[in-house]
Amino acid sequence: SFVLTQAPSVSVAPGQTARITCGANNIGSQGVHWYQQKPGQAPVLVVYGDSDRPSGIPERFSGSNSGNTATLTISRVEAGDEADYYCQVWDSNADQFVFGTGTEVTVL
Amino acid sequence: QITLKESGPTLVKPTQTLTLTCTFSGFSLSARGMAVAWIRQPPGKALEWLALIYWDDDKRYSPSLKNRLTITKDPSKNQVVLTMTNMDPVDTATFFCAHTDNPTVHGLGVWGQGTTVIVSS
Description:
heterodimer; A: 108 residues; mainly beta; globular; B: 121 residues; four-stranded antiparallel β-sheet
């Protein structure tokens, strides 16, 4: 089954671009979803199906997925983007959701 | 607008069975394609998927916990219930329920606020 590996932390200055990666063998063959979780709150879906955004999510959030790496990109980072970010796939071979290990994004 | 809310005990003793209820609105769990999932998050740790129940009563469980979990639904009450047996202090976590209409394509689009469960004697 899938094991999704994320870097524990990423730091970025306001206005710059944050890239959060999610690695797994041949993850490019799966649809990847991304969640933002702020302290004490429930996760919020920010990207689904590799690169689509739910209604209400700013265009600054974008996703891509190819080969062994999926990436969530946050452009023009704002202080309010500071949160934990989790990738997720539905492993159709094992019929289960799998979450990544999570990345803490700090805005400097 | 889809909303979900978790409810259940805040404190359970080791070896007891935990029963959590997810009460939802804005969709019917009798409608084709709909599903509700349960996820937990121990303090300071990552999200962990637990179980999923589909509109047609098909069920999926985390392989590592499947012997302890049971998920059921009552569409007439707009509720999904999760039971977890033989609770242990390491099961202390915030438990979330969430909605999906296609786990592969759409992920978990709407989440409840979560409910905290502490396992302690």
